[in-house]
Amino acid sequence: MAALASSLIRQRREVKDPQANRQIASKRKPCPKSNKSLCQKQILILISKVRLCGSRGRKMEKRPEPQLKGIVTRLYCRHGFYLQMLPDGTMEGTKDESSSFLQFNLIPVGLRIVAIQSTKTGLYVAMNSEGYLYTSEHFTPECKFKECVFENYYVTYSSILYRQTQSGRAWYIGINRDGQVMKGNRVKKTKGAAHFLPKLIEGTKDKCSYLGVFCLYVVFFFLHLFYLFLAAYVSFTLF
Predict the structure, then answer these.
(1) What is the reported pLDDT for 220?
(2) Single pTM value for the model
(3) Residue 96 belongs to domain with CATH number
(4) Which of 111, 148, 180, 235 has fewest C-beta within 10 Å?
């Protein structure tokens, strides 16, 4: 009887075990096989990276642009006045060396071309089509001035855009003997009103920065010479 009971128990277990295994197997869901190929997966990864880079780029665009750097100087006119820019944008000459509105950034923007920016107000010196000097919050083509060293080692600043239509004479930044800023078309190159002496501010710019700007001028100069030589060579070979 004991043997018969044990055999019946084994048979019942064998009958129940396959059903339990089937129930467990039915509860498990097979892992879905991906129909995407390896190439498609790589493309999706690449797209996700591009989106990530794009989001970083949009975050970077929100940051303000850094201010242009140059040589901090005071522009001393031959008539005995310093050029100063007041907070309201007024430009005039003054003999007060202790004024806090005398400092300007001379920013090289091309071959012997500079932009003049006040370090106090952040405004740029500009000249309009009528020869009047004004201040601009943003850097525009009217803010470009050609910097030339005169025979007496003074420097002149002439507008890049405007000049006399008939004679072609350049329009210069100038201060008269009364300390007033003059119209560009009334300033002559040979007169003292157009002659300025840039005086470096001690302690604001080190020698390395000055040397870097000087090297930039040298590079522009040699590039200009190379362009002239190349143009002459091409014209000689063609004709």
Answers:
(1) 64
(2) 0.58
(3) 2.80.10.50
(4) 235
